[in-house]
Amino acid sequence: MTTTLGAGRWSGVDLGTRTVSYDERDAILYALAVGARADELDLVFEDRLRVLPTFALTLAQWAPDELGGRGGFDQSTTLHGSQTLEVRAPLPRSGALALSASVGNVWDKGAAAVFEVVVESEYFVATWSLFAPGAGGFGGERGPSKPAPPEGDPQFTGVMETATTQAALYRLTGDRHHIHIDPAAAAGIGQPRPIMHGLCTLAASTLELARATGAHPADLRTLDGRFAAPLFPGQTPGYRAWGDRGELAFELDLDGTAVIAGGRATFA
Q1: Is residue 252 in some structural domain?
Q2: What are the residue numbers of the active site?
Q3: Residue 54: pLDDT over 80
Q4: Rounded distance, CA 205 to CA 208, Å?
Q5: Which pLDDT score is estimated for 134?
Q6: Which residues are CB-contacts of 30 (< 8 A; sequence separation ≥ 6)?
Q7: Residue 143 within a domain
Q8: Domain hosting residue 73, numbered range
Q9: DSSP run (H or E) holding 226
């Protein structure tokens, strides 16, 4: 566990480089897990396959786990606060990617610290922001504030359907934390049943945004979102989006409670 005086020392620490391999089956399984439809053939059919850019986040999941394993934060209490993704080039249908990871900024929020874990490759840059209660108070900078909510009426609205089996399917892409499958583990964090993976919810929202705006989900170029509340498999949150596919601000909410807040996405 990180001491309250020690969190800042992790800033800039090299977390290593790994080569991660995958094939077309992995990319298709991922697309189905985040809500691709059977008739979206260029997402689910190997003969026409375009790999979803958010698939990169499953390939890089080892990096925040590496920091937790080294004692950077208490893995039993730390939460995934937000996620960003910058696409540099389309992911190949299959291959082996060299991914380099490091700790970015470590922000001091007083009662907590926020660790940034940055993963880079020739295809993408992804940043995890991890909220670690009890690790603040080390005298560091507080960091940026939350972005202001969009003003005016949204240009796009709709509902994002999720399947009751979605978390059970998504965990096969790499994140097998028990809170997404085991009711007892979910109860341990105060939830009545297993919850959706935040990265699954965020990626699923990009498919809905692409459909609404006429973009292709594989043309995603940037993505940013804050995980505001858990979502349960089978629930149907609504989305609101402002702008156009070249620059979208969006929110995902359920019965007035934000699930994804401060969302930003751009499509080519």
Answers
A1: yes
A2: 175, 180
A3: yes
A4: 5
A5: 94
A6: 52, 55, 58, 173
A7: no
A8: 7-133
A9: strand 220-227
